[in-house]
């Protein structure tokens, strides 16, 4: 009864007040994602057809409204039209939120960023979809190589491992679709297991400042993201095909997305790459073929304030390793280094023989978010990864078909993140991470385990806060703490165990003594703290200054702790150290940036001081029945890396642009007062691009890349006795290759097939002059030249 | 709300999954391919005692140096030599010579005396294609002299060849002995 009375009262009040019709309704329209003001939004009042638009400040205003309930339709070209019911009572203020999408299909560039910032006080270098597509037949590392300050550690031309400001492997964290890649990244010859065609946006942060992802990114963070799906009824896709002359192979990649207005969407993507032996100028690089297959499925439901997504991907890659790089001992190494051409050159073939790698990576993730008004966005994610790595070696007898290394790494991670705007000016991001990891080395290989069996538990928590002081200054601060526990079962050779005095130092971890091996159970704890502090100052029309200090702590990885024995693919004996502690890096980076259409540049000097830096370098020669091998020992030292990266882009005529890059890094071992091994040499690249959007978006570019000779390197040469000549001979493994210059040509043109489909035809030529060169950062540089000229013909259809 | 419920369930299941894994100690690996021991037996044709040259490295590519046993040759004597390879990390020891002989086309032994040592060698046994394998050989000791004698096993050498210089392939074994002819 009471309710009825109330209702009656309510209705009577409306009618009594509805006589007054000079009220106004005003407010703003914002994007629900980031609160950005939306300009040019049309608001229509149903029945009266009164129409207004939001101005540059995102504001709108209606007048002459009665005290009544109105239905208002709010629409924007890049948003889904939405209806709102508004009750007017006096002069009313009301704000509307729309979901602002990216118009994927028509490739219209819109104001604002499609992908959010990962760090606000460190410069982010990104590679967009168009640029990534130019590398579609290559690897993720090839694409990253095009950024200043990013180089790569290669094993031949197909294993390309990204290197940021001189650091790589465990020091570079790769995040794929929100999941930190756990793919045995510690090995120098292990490339990231990501299909470049599944990535739509690639961001590199040259520092540890992005604490929401990790606290141990001493080198930096690479973030790969899939494209976002609009909330509307749509079906679209694209297919990319590339055929290449070098490697005589092709790659094919297809992607199809279906989305619904109610928020459901699904994307299916698949890629296939097959190449035979690649060629250097003058000869075939035998056994360098590659066969890569991958597929991914993404299904999700996305609403304004909540969403859920499931994602699964499989990546399988078979890679041949240059036949001539497989060596017995130091005597073989001398023969290989002294020879101008590889010791093994066979006819071209698609067959991939030993030595080869066969890696399979599964990634499954489920995540959801919920946006709470006046609180923020809460996200939760669970992911599972399984990385199975098989390495096949040249073997004898029954073992011929058997893998020499068979490692399976499983990782489960749970993430909980909160993104909360505490006020108009302060945004807090905070979260928790729990991770469990298990590595199993298959004992059936008949080869001692390079990486032991282990289980690892990680717990992490972080916060990052940014404070928009005024229009010019933004301040950022963050902290992170990670605890990890490693439970390891490791078989040590008794001789090594005693040589290292481990029998005195760690007698308590011995489980069992076998004939010539000792089974141990090391249990290791690491507590790692990391922090970031930065500022971002905007001045003038288009100038920005970034300042960032970050501290990163990285626990030693299982390779650095437990390596002990012959690493055949590297033709050396590698020895780790059980007593290592975490390395701690302090990096200060400064960026001066100017951004406008005519001329933009950024200059990014940095200094990275690392205590207990783990280096791996040659120490002695060990005699075995197989011959003499160089021993590479891991060692902790204090290191410092200094450098500068420069990018510039100048539009000196209509449709013509010059892009330039320069990177320099110097690394020193401060304990030994000597240069660090494996630092990238200085390089400069200049590119002239002609692009005319009015003429089928034709694009022509010519790039010149000059790589200097690395003059700073430690001398790690050694001498070996040659019985045939009764002399000692120097094995020169440290001298660096000469400088080289490469020319690359690129062209593409768009053809509109119909209203909805577009064909892009491209021709690319790399190493136009067919220059013979060797790259200091290619682990196989002793044995063969790098790739010769390559013609790449590609077709892309958007539909 | 339904989605959130599903998510929570999935999360708890995964935590349960994590909590439950427990493992026993792993099995030791039987190193199948390691060659720990090379034994060269030289039987003189004059009926005197056979000479044994041996290099033995029981920890494989571990830090311990191989233990080398050598012997002296008598001038003017011709020896019939044979080479035996063992993997003594296994029990009983595995005879690797059998594997090498099975894959005879892919292997060849070379004998390299230093210039000061007056011995001549010749590989005797052949592979299945009629080229040299060399697990059996003859050695003729010349004048009184001393130096080193090196035995090299190459995998996938170019066959036929004139010696180590043009044999290519990959070194599987390289064992050097101090030898004198008395």
Write structural notes for this entry.
- The complex is a heterodimer of chains A (799) and B (182).
- Chain A is mainly β and 799 residues long.
- Chain A has seven helices and 46 strands.
- In chain A, the strands form seven sheets. Chain A has a 22-stranded antiparallel barrel. Chain A has a five-stranded mixed β-sheet with strand order 9-14-15-12-13.
- The termini of chain A are far apart.
- Chain B has 182 residues and is mostly beta strands.
- Helix content of chain B is 14%, strand content 38%.
- Chain B has helices at residues 2-20, 96-102; strands at residues 37-44, 51-56, 67-69, 78-87, 94-95, 107-113, 119-123, 136-141, 145-155, 170-181.
- Chain B is globular and about 65 Å long.
- In chain B, 34% of the residues are buried.
- The interface between A and B is large, with 69 and 63 residues.
Provide a short characterization of the protein structure.
The complex is a heterodimer of chains A (799) and B (182). With 799 residues, chain A is mainly β.
Give the topology.
The complex is a heterodimer of chains A (799) and B (182).
Chain A: H1 2-17, E1 23-31, E2 42-45, E3 51-53, E4 59-65, E5 69-75, E6 82-87, E7 92-93, E8 96-98, E9 124-127, H2 129-134, H3 140-144, E10 150-155, E11 159-164, E12 172-176, E13 179-180, E14 201-205, E15 220-225, E16 234-244, E17 250-259, E18 264-275, E19 278-280, E20 283-285, E21 290-302, E22 306-320, H4 330-338, E23 356-372, E24 376-392, E25 405-421, E26 426-441, E27 453-468, E28 473-493, H5 494-499, H6 502-505, E29 510-513, E30 517-520, E31 523-539, E32 543-554, H7 558-562, E33 564-567, E34 572-575, E35 583-594, E36 599-624, E37 627-653, E38 656-669, E39 674-675, E40 683-692, E41 698-707, E42 718-722, E43 727-731, E44 740-752, E45 758-766, E46 790-798
Parallel strand pairs in A: 1-7, 1-8, 12-15, 34-37
Antiparallel strand pairs in A: 1-4, 2-3, 2-5, 5-6, 9-14, 10-11, 12-13, 14-15, 16-17, 16-46, 17-18, 18-21, 19-20, 21-22, 22-23, 23-24, 24-25, 25-26, 26-27, 27-28, 28-30, 28-31, 29-30, 31-32, 32-35, 33-34, 35-36, 36-37, 37-38, 38-39, 38-40, 40-41, 41-44, 42-43, 44-45, 45-46
Chain B: H1 2-20, E1 37-44, E2 51-56, E3 67-69, E4 78-87, E5 94-95, H2 96-102, E6 107-113, E7 119-123, E8 136-141, E9 145-155, E10 170-181
Antiparallel strand pairs in B: 1-2, 1-4, 2-3, 4-5, 4-8, 6-9, 7-8, 9-10
């Amino acid at each position: 009864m009471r309710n009825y009375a109330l209702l009656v009262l309510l209705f009577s009040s409306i009618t009594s007040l509805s006589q007054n019709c000079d009220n106004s309704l005003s407010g703003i329209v914002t994007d629900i994602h980031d609160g950005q003001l939306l300009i040019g939004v049309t608001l229509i009042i149903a029945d009266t057809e009164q129409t207004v638009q939001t101005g540059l400040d995102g504001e709108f205003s209606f007048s002459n409204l009665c005290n009544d309930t109105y239905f208002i339709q709010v629409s924007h070209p890049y948003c889904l039209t939405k209806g709102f019911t508004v009750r007017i009572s006096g002069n009313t203020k009301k704000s509307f939120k729309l979901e602002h999408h990216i118009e994927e299909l028509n490739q219209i560039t819109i104001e604002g960023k499609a992908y959010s910032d990962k760090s606000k006080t460190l410069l982010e270098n990104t590679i967009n979809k168009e640029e990534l597509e130019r590398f579609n037949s290559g690897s993720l590392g090839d694409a990253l190589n095009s950024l200043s300050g990013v180089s790569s550690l290669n094993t031949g031309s197909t294993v390309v491992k990204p290197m940021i400001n001189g650091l790589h492997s465990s020091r570079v964290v790769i995040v794929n679709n929100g999941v930190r890649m756990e793919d045995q990244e510690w090995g120098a010859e292990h490339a990231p297991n990501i299909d470049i065609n599944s990535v739509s946006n690639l961001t590199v942060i040259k520092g540890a400042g992005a604490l929401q992802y990790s606290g141990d990114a001493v080198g930096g963070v690479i973030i790969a993201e899939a494209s976002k799906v609009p909330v509307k009824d749509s079906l679209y896709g694209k297919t990319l095909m590339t055929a290449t002359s070098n490697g005589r192979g092709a790659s094919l990649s297809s992607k199809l997305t279906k989305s619904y207005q109610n928020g459901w969407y699904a994307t299916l993507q698949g890629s296939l790459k097959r190449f035979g032996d690649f060629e250097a100028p003058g000869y075939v690089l035998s056994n360098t073929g590659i066969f890569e297959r991958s597929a991914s499925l993404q299904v999700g439901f996305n609403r304004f304030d909540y969403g859920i997504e499931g994602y699964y991907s499989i990546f399988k890659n078979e890679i041949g390793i240059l036949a001539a790089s497989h060596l017995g001992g130091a005597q073989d190494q001398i023969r290989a280094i002294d020879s101008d051409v590889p010791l093994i050159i066979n006819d071209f073939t698609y067959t991939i023989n030993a030595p080869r790698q066969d890696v399979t990576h599964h990634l499954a993730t489920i995540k959801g978010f919920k946006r709470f008004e006046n609180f923020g966005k809460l996200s939760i994610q669970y992911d599972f990864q399984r990385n199975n790595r098989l390495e096949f070696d040249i073997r004898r007898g029954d073992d011929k078909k058997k893998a020499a290394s068979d490692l399976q790494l499983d990782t489960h991670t749970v993430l909980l993140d909160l993104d909360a705007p505490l006020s108009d000016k302060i945004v807090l991001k905070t979260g928790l991470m729990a991770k469990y990891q298990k590595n199993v080395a298959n004992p059936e290989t008949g080869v001692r385990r390079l990486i032991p069996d282990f289980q690892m538990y990680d717990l992490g928590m972080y916060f990052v806060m940014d404070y928009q002081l005024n229009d010019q200054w933004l301040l950022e601060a963050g902290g992170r703490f990670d605890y990890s526990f490693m439970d390891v079962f490791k078989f040590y050779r008794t001789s090594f165990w005693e040589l290292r005095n481990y029998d005195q130092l760690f007698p308590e971890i011995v489980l069992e003594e076998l004939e010539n091996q000792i089974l141990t159970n090391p249990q290791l704890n690491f507590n790692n703290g990391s922090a970031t502090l930065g500022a971002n100052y905007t001045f003038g029309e288009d100038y920005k200054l970034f300042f960032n200090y970050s501290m990163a702590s990285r626990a030693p990885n299982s390779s650095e702790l437990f390596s002990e024995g012959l690493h055949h693919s590297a033709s050396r004996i590698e020895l780790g150290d059980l007593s290592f502690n975490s390395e701690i890096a302090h990096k200060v980076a400064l960026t001066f940036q100017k951004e406008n259409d005519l001329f933009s540049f950024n200059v990014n000097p940095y200094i990275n001081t690392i205590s207990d830096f783990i280096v791996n370098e040659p120490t002695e020669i060990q005699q075995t029945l197989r011959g003499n091998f160089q021993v590479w020992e891991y060692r902790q030292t204090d290191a410092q890396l200094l450098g500068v990266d420069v990018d510039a882009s100048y539009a000196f005529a209509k449709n013509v642009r010059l892009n330039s890059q320069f990177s320099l890094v110097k690394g020193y071992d401060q304990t030994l007062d000597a240069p660090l091994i494996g630092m990238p040499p200085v390089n400069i690249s200049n590119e002239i691009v002609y692009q005319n959007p009015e003429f089928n978006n034709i694009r022509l570019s010519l790039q010149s890349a000059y790589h200097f000779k690395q003059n700073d390197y430690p001398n790690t040469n050694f001498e070996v006795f040659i019985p045939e000549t009764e002399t000692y001979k120097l094995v020169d493994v440290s001298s660096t290759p000469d400088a080289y210059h490469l020319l690359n040509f690129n062209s593409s043109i768009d053809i509109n097939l119909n209203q909805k489909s577009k064909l892009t035809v491209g021709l690319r030529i790399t190493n136009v002059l067919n220059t013979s060169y060797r790259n200091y950062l290619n682990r196989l540089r002793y044995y063969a030249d790098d790739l010769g000229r390559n013609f790449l013909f590609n077709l892309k259809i958007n539909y | 709300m339904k989605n959130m419920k599903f998510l929570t369930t999935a999360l708890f299941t995964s935590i349960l999954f994590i909590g439950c894994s427990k493992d026993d100690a792993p099995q030791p690996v039987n190193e199948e391919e390691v060659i720990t021991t090379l034994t060269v037996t030289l039987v003189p044709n004059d009926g005197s005692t056979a000479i044994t040259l041996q290099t033995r490295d029981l920890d494989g590519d571990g830090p311990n140096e191989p233990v080398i046993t050598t012997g002296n040759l008598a001038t003017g004597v011709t020896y019939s030599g044979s080479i035996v390879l063992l993997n003594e990390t296994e029990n009983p020891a595995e005879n690797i010579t059998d594997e090498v002989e099975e894959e005879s086309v892919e292997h060849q032994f070379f004998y390299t005396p230093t210039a000061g040592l007056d011995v001549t060698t010749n590989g005797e046994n052949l592979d299945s294609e009629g080229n040299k394998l060399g697990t059996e050989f003859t050695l003729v000791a010349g004048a009184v002299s001393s130096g080193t004698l090196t035995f090299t096993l190459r995998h996938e050498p170019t066959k036929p060849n004139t010696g180590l210089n043009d044999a290519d392939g990959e070194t599987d074994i390289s064992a050097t002995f101090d030898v004198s002819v008395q």
